[in-house]
Amino acid sequence: MQAEKEPAGQHLDLRVGEIVEVRSEAQILATIDARGELESLPFMPEMLQFCGRRFRVDKLALKLCDTIGSTGMYRMRNAVHLEGVRCDGQGHGGCQAGCLVYWKEAWLMRVPADEHNRPDRPPDLATDPAGSGCTHETLLAATRKGGSTAPEDELFSCQATEVLRAAPTRVPPWDVRQYVRDVRSGNAGLLATIRAVAIGVFNEYQDFSRRFLPRPLRIKGGMRLPFIQGQLESTPDGRLDLQPGELVRIRSKQEIASTLDRNNSNRGLSFDPEMLWYSGRQARVLRRAERIIDERTGKLLHLKRPCIVLDGVTCRGEYHRCCPRADYPYWRETWLERVE
Description:
Layout: E1 19-22, H1 25-29, E2 37-38, E3 41-42, E4 54-60, E5 63-65, E6 73-75, E7 79-82, E8 103-104, E9 108-110, H2 136-141, H3 163-166, E10 169-171, H4 176-185, H5 190-212, E11 247-250, H6 253-257, E12 265-266, E13 269-270, E14 282-293, E15 300-310, E16 336-338
Antiparallel strand pairs: 1-4, 1-9, 2-3, 4-7, 5-6, 6-10, 7-8, 11-14, 11-16, 12-13, 14-15
């Protein structure tokens, strides 16, 4: 008995924890247009290696926070994140951001419970699906934006750079339905959702108080949670030359705050409030990030000061309305200490 095959494009109404199989390359190419996109979401060449393999649905990609212009939350439709499936950047100049991949449900098929233990199928490398406006070569060409005249000016296109086209509908903070979906889908627990809502409401009040209330009526001067504010004019470097596999401890809130400027940055890298949850914890270095695509422009940035990516340390969405993107935050070495 083979896995159930819903027609391409059908909404599967998947839930967190379900087992799915990634469709063959030919089947997927038949669902996308001549630009290599389905509903404006690119299917990237890095995703082809997963064809025929089975994964657990980790989160439903119901919404996402805008990391391009910081304009709020946007709704994604008919897409999920699969457990442990991240972009390796091989089709995009070796980008090391390691973004969690978006999968349209049309690219997946539900696996019946009695077939969960069947081995993965070998990938189908057919590149000429009947009736498709897209080929393997099209996918490769779509990773570059037009207008580049020299290698140093080369611009890339990926799910991260095009995400606002794929999710154009803004979700305002007061839309209660988003939080109901978070809990019902299994994306977030009830207590975590209540906490995220409470943090959001408090921070909105803090923003209001800074603009309209006299200083004596403000809580901590109108600072947003988690109440961290740098004061330096020039920030320390603090390089450790950390390498993949090394064990580190993340410094305390006070120690990190002492390395930040008034924009809560160190050497141009912002410290995100989500990162404070990991203070005092230990983690292993996953890699030194030296090449990252700028989501605003598509340009591949070669970082003068490499950032550290820690294994298993991802954004939890507590300060971003339960956003399920689970991006890797970037760490300055001065925010870490080596564990011997």
